[in-house]
Amino acid sequence: MGDIMKICVIHGSPRKGNTFHSTEIFKKQMKKLGEVEFIEFFLYKDAPHFCSGCYNCFEKGEEFCPHANEIQPIIEAMRCSDGFVFTSPVYVLAETAQMKAFLDHLGYLFIPHRPMEEMFGKVAIVLSTTAGAGTSKAIKTISRSLNFWGVKRVYSLGLKMFALDWTEMNEKKRIKYEKLLASKARKFYYSVLKRKRMSFRLFTWVVFYAMKNMISKYPDEQLDKKYWTNMSWLDKRSPFNK
Questions:
Q1: With a threshold of 0.90, does the pTM exceed it?
Q2: H helices of the chain, where?
Q3: Cα pseudo-dihedral 17, 90, 126, 66, rounded to 10
Q4: 6 forms bridges with which residues in the sheet?
Q5: Could you report the per-residue pLDDT of 125-151, keeping only the tens digit for each?
Q6: How far, in Å, CA of 63 to CA of 13, rounded?
C-alpha cells in the first residue's frame, strides 16, 4: 500500500503496565507488516474531565460541551485515522473510570443521534488485560460504544495474566501471549487494508434504518434531524452507499 496506515490509539490508563506492554507488542507487530503511523492519547491526561451530564452535545452541538477543547482534538484524530485501538486494564471487573468518562462524552456520536459518517468505514480493536478476571466486561462496554458509532468491524483481545507484571508470567505463557498479539495484529492490519470491501454488519443496517424512520418524524428544528437532513440520510443517501 502506498499510503501510510494511520491508527489512533486510546489508552484507558496512564499507567505503563501490562496493558501498555501488550499494546506495544501489538504495535510492533503491525509495523512489521507495513508503514503504520500511530497517534496516541492517554486518559486521563488528554481527557481529564468526567462528563457533566449537561446535554449540550445533544441539544446544542458537541462544540458546546464544556470539555470540547480536550475531547474534540481526539475526535478529529479518530476521524483522520484508518482504524482504532482502544485499551483498558481491568479495574474491579470493568474498564477504567478514565475510559468510561471519555466514552460518556461521545453519546452524541451514536447512530440514533449524529453519527460521524467516517466511522462507518473504520475498523477497531479493543485490548484489555487483567491480573485475574474481567476482560470480557471491560471489552463489552467499549465495544458497545464502537458498535453504536457505526464502526464497521470491532475485534477484541483479553489477556488474563494471573500476575501483576508481564515479567512475572512464566516464559511459556509470555510466548503464548506474544504469538496471540502477533496474530491479532495481522488480522487487524489486513482488515484495515480491506475495510472498504467489507460488508456492513446487520446490526448497523438495522439500527440506522430504524432511526431513519424515527428521526424523519422529529420536528424540523431538532438538532439530530437537522444533521440527518444535511447528510441527506433522510433521502436515498446513506453511509452504506456514499
A1: yes
A2: 18-31, 56-59, 68-79, 97-104, 135-149, 171-193, 202-215, 223-230
A3: -90
A4: 37
A5: 999 999 999 999 999 999 999 999 999
A6: 25
